[in-house]
Amino acid sequence: xxxxxxxxxxxxxxxxxxxxxxxxxxxxxxxxxxxxxxxxxxxxxxxxxxxxxxxxxxxxxxxxxxxxxxxxxxxxxxxxxxxxxxxxxxxxxxxxxxxxxxxxxxxxxxxxxxxxxxxxxxxxxxxxxxxxxxxxxxxxxxxxxxxxxxxxxxxxxxxxxxxxxxxxxxxxxxxxxxxxxxxxxxxxxxxxxxxxxxxxxxxxxxxxxxxxxxxxxxxxxxxxxxxxxxxxxxxxxxxxxxxxxxxxxxxxxxxxxxxxxxxxxxxxxxxxxxxxxxxxxxxxxxxxxxxxxxxxxxxxxxxxxxxxxxxxxxxxxxxxxxxxxxxxxxxx
Length: 332
Fold this sequence. Notes:
β17 and β18 (about 285) form a beta hairpin. Strands 6, 7, 8, 11, 12 and 13 form a six-stranded antiparallel sheet that branches. Helix content is about 25%, strand content about 25%. α2 (about 100-110) runs antiparallel to α5. The longest helix is centred in the last third of the chain and has 19 residues, at about 300-320. The protein is of the alpha+beta class.
């Protein structure tokens, strides 16, 4: 039996440790609970927005809270599936959208499965990774996807999409771009039309020690270069595709171009060049360690973070004629 709670503080559900109260809050750990909760929700409201929350990374929660329903997805199952004898080295794994990437990688190590080693140290859940097509070290979650199962919030019907139907792009997918039909357009930034339930991943049998080594290398890389000592929600801005970089700047920074997985100029490089390391707004600060991170170093408010984001975008546009685009989502 699940129940929708009222006026639940979101601060402790945020990796930033920032955020007001959700007017309504629903925690679910399986599909039956989700359907039951949404049926209850229909008796409360047909118009208020819904937001799906995983680990609270990659999302800035307003201190003013959220006047709708937050669904906290804790569907965490991870299990291998049978494959044909002719595909003995290939393994299909069903993973709940609420499963932590860390737990998925530990499952891979335990079962000698290769494929998502690139995600070592990645915070958050599989559902969030799918929604934003998370990627690092030339890998992206789409490379491991066979099928994604979701639930339509309005009809409560299951939808299954093969890889091509998920419309994965650079840090995007059909799940990130969709909007709730008929919802208030002023609230659509926070709206959700479907909830990702689980995904079937394609993995390969591999050498356990080598898989573990590769994952640990990525974890150590993040520990050394990312400001994990402060509350943060990961990279704030998307990296910049080279076709969006003015030619003069491109020539100046040609040694910094990377594949991610296509040629990009790392935003961190541009922010460092602009002298933005250590820039502050209230309790928010551009990390000295990695300038594409804004950290909560002194009890920052959501407005402090937003002020700093706006300031960075303005400076970069004026200095380099480059429009930065946020990688994070806003909950307000």
